[in-house]
Specification:
- The chain is mainly beta.
- The chain has one domain: monomeric porin ompg (Porin).
- The chain is about 10% helix and about 55% strand.
- The chain is built from two helices and 14 strands, in the order αβββββββββββββαβ.
- The strands form two sheets. A twelve-stranded antiparallel barrel has the order 1-4-5-6-7-8-9-10-11-12-13-14.
- β12 and β13 form a beta hairpin.
- The radius of gyration is 18 Å and the shape is globular.
Length: about 230
């Protein structure tokens, strides 16, 4: 119990420190926002809304130096029901170019579920390396993955293919290595077709699938599913 409490304090302090750095570095800040309506909130191959629609929105405060802080929220519903109805992701990090073709983003993300009857909050260190804005490799590590009290490492390899001015395809394959005491490692994949309707508005149709280990870990919320979303940025 003492060890778990220490981890929690360290995670909160680390997130608070990075958030402070991001805000202090945003003297000449730019504000961005986004909003989404989706038929199913799917994260790493598993539904976070029990297959139901969800409304999502976020805001990001960034500086010219690359430091940023953001908050993103979504409706959630888990099985079995643990009282969670909302998720808030508090993020602080740095992102910028590494030459003409490469870009890097490194951040600390704190996942918060304020209405849950149990403690579901956890923290993850993420990094994403992008090449030519078309291919990316994401890696996330945590010593309390999914708030399960065990370590976990997630990796995703993805690509996007523009099809003219209004259409593009995006695909990704991810693997989650979880401590054996928590659950099996699992693999998932997704393929999206995105249509830029007008200005910042986009329609996204995404097919998701997981392997058998994912279905066993998230019964009823993993496996094959389709998600349709309307999204915008401002």
């Amino acid at each position: 119990m003492v060890v778990e409490q220490s981890k929690g304090r360290l995670a909160r302090r680390g997130c608070g420190l990075l958030l402070g750095l991001a805000v202090s570095g945003a003297a000449s800040a730019a504000v961005e926002g986004n909003a989404t309506l989706t038929t199913d909130y799917v994260w790493r191959g598993s539904s976070q809304s029990d297959g139901d629609p969800a409304a999502q929105a976020g805001v990001k405060l960034g500086s010219e130096s690359g430091w940023y802080a953001s908050v993103w929220g979504s409706g959630v519903s888990f099985r079995p029901d643990n009282g969670a109805r909302s998720e808030f992701d508090v993020v602080a990090g740095w992102g910028g170019a590494l030459g003409n073709d490469w870009a890097l983003d490194v951040n600390l993300t704190r996942y918060l579920y304020p209405s849950s009857d149990v403690d579901l909050d956890w923290t993850e260190l993420n990094s994403t390396l992008t090449w030519q804005q078309r291919y990316w490799l994401q890696v996330g590590v945590s010593d309390d993955a999914l708030a399960g009290g065990h370590s976990g490492t997630y990796a995703q390899l993805g690509a996007r293919l523009p099809l003219g001015q209004q259409w593009r395809l995006e695909g990704a394959v991810g693997h989650y290595w979880l401590d054996s005491a928590q659950g099996d490692d699992y693999l998932h994949g997704q393929l999206s077709a995105i249509w830029k309707v007008h200005g910042p508005w986009e329609l996204r149709l995404t097919a998701h699938d997981t392997d058998g280990a994912g279905k066993r870990l998230f019964p009823g919320n993993a496996g094959s599913r389709v998600e349709f979303a309307l999204q915008t940025a401002f």
